[in-house]
TrEMBL record, chains A, B:
GO terms for molecular function: glycosyltransferase activity; histidine-tRNA ligase activity. Residues 11-307 form the Class II Histidinyl-tRNA synthetase (HisRS)-like catalytic core domain. It comes from Qipengyuania soli. GO terms for biological process: histidyl-tRNA aminoacylation. This is ATP phosphoribosyltransferase regulatory subunit. Keywords: Glycosyltransferase, Transferase.
């Protein structure tokens, strides 16, 4: 073994004790919040047939998956790069006959063969919840609320939710703002990048006002309603207003109706989660249709790295940790652990209790603070 | 997508809600028990350089690893098939200067390209703790105790621990029961398979009595002490007695000094964990030397599948779950969740609360049991 073998490949890293503990705590809090809203955790495997992972949902970058040949079936297997598709498979197959709406949640590692340009990580801890059987306004309101509760449960304060309308162009292009089918993709792209010049060049002049119906929810939705003279968006606007009302003051709501990056497979509603302290997005969600089973669903995904970034480095309050000298009373130590003490036992007698992180020492059955 | 794509590859499976919940609970309990004894969790990545995983410890079946080429480094990467080697790497590299003894624990999925004959699973959830910097009797006593506490924490009752002496033949062959170097491997193998005829044929007649120093600890260790006329095993026998004494009545202790399968890399002490209700072993542990850094260590590994088997199907007490009708008071629901209620909200008004697993219904601010 060379020293180089001791390094980790680019984009893969160890979470050492402090970070691992923060991950465990945040993960438990997020899972507990989802569980509290009736979402049952499922644990799909790390590896599946590539076709099953790649085939169930649009917009998943299959080229980035880690693939290899199964010696058993001689078929191509892949390491999961997204757990949403696995939950969709479960809903469509082994849980096809479970009552709807079906509420499932998950937390697990996903891996990519190649990092993307914005994020060098090749492994991410993905957490999320899916409400399967509905893409209604009520379903969307619930999912946004669960996402907010999950982030608050993990300890986040200032949460922002940015709403979008992923199928906006399709909805308008038919009648309200007519657009040839072959021009729609270009118009979507220019709207997504907020390029007014490009939008005009692509034949989307009529869509220009949409670029300005953006910002804090109340003002932005009012602007969108003004643009929607023909009423093509009326039900969507009403839906967004209902969802925003259901959230109330629990999060700051903004609107960016033309945002489309990251919402390639969502239908009428999408949202992005932000929090003070994190540079990027914490996660995304929205309404969609499960490919294959064509069942309506609403869900969200959050990622652990930006969540930890938003949580920041907390003052690492020294955990009360009790040093147990050689020959200590094992039963007494067990009783102290049972009431919440963390213990570190001497095994040689030459230990430096403080260097090992201890705050107290067991002496004659008493817990004495280390000076 | 064909129906076949909906199936999972052989040896890989989904954990659906009931099983996933059991896994989450057992995993939290095991991790909390290890944490209580001062073991810090680390989270190494799913994927590493193959050489790093394969090179750090003997006895790891590298042929069974899932391997692929890294497009970044053009080197071979592998999906981890054992987390112990990853913890060894962490101890030897990024945590090389952390004070000793270093107590680390882990829990995570490992995967194999091919199943072994006894276990068709190609993915396993591995949990364990490593005490790095010592392979003393005190270290071994602590690790066996932590393993027992972890299993008890998960809810197991009747735990058995079977002690072994992995380097028994090497210790005896030098002087007490002389054996040519080229005969030792055959003698080890025949002892491991308890084949008296084969042992004799392999030139190991003198080792025959070892086959009978097995069973409940007190009697078996007395027999082993009788065989050890020259005193070559004296320190080992004293060590085993000390470890057994430290466990006291917390588990049933047995001895099988010639057991070697599964202890290919352990040094003087090894143990296997059993529990009533599980057919196979729950896990193993012992003393070893971390390859590369050559640091002494003691640790154990347990696997989730046999642990769940030993826990058995518990009477699935219906969790108190509260149905929230359409138009319910959201703040009241949040307050009820905060005091431990699990809620399931109506989104259509046509839900069957009982079919969705609810036991209660919120009515006029009161929780009413469903009839």
């Amino acid at each position: 073994m060379t020293d180089q073998d001791d390094l980790l490949p680019v984009g893969l890293e160890d979470a050492l004790p402090a970070r691992a503990r923060a991950i465990t705590e945040a993960m438990r809090a997020v899972l507990d919040a989802m569980d509290g809203h009736g979402y049952d955790r499922v644990r799909p495997p790390l590896v599946e047939f590539e076709k099953s992972l790649a085939g169930r949902m649009e917009g998943v970058a299959t080229r980035r998956m880690i693939r290899f040949t199964d010696p058993e079936s001689l078929r191509t297997l892949a390491l999961r790069s997204d757990m949403t598709v696995q939950v969709g498979r479960i809903a469509a197959t082994v849980m096809a006959s479970a009552p709807r709406p079906l509420r499932l949640c998950y937390a697990g590692d996903v891996a990519m063969l190649k990092a993307d340009q914005l994020d060098p990580a090749r492994q991410r801890l993905q957490l999320g919840a899916e409400l399967i059987g509905s893409d209604s306004v009520a379903a969307a309101s619930e999912i946004v609320g669960v996402a907010i509760d999950a982030l608050k449960g993990a300890g986040l304060g200032n949460i922002s939710v940015d709403f979008t309308l992923p199928d906006l162009v399709d909805t308008l292009a038919e009648k309200a703002l007519p657009l040839d089918v072959d021009k729609r993709e270009a118009v979507r792209r220019e709207l997504d990048t907020k390029d007014a010049g490009g939008l005009t060049a692509a034949g989307g002049e009529a869509y220009l006002p949409l670029l300005y119906a953006t910002g804090p929810f109340d003002e932005a939705i009012a602007k969108l309603a003004e643009i929607d003279a023909g009423g093509a968006l009326a039900s969507r606007i009403a839906g967004l207003r209902d969802i925003a009302a259901s959230i109330g003051k629990r999060a700051r709501i903004t609107l960016d109706p033309t945002e489309r990056h990251g919402f390639e497979y969502q239908s009428w509603f999408g949202f992005t989660l932000y929090a003070e302290g994190a540079r990027g997005t914490l996660g995304r969600g929205g309404t969609y249709t499960i490919r294959g089973s064509e069942e309506a669903a609403t869900g969200f995904t959050i990622y652990m790295d930006p969540l930890l970034e938003a949580l920041g480095t907390r003052a690492d309050e020294a955990r009360k940790t009790l040093f147990l000298p050689l020959g200590h009373d094992r039963d007494a130590a067990a009783r102290l652990r049972a009431i919440g003490w963390r213990t570190v036992a001497a095994i040689s007698g030459s230990e430096d209790a403080k260097a090992l992180g201890c705050t107290h020492r067991l002496e004659d059955g008493e817990t004495i603070a280390l000076g």
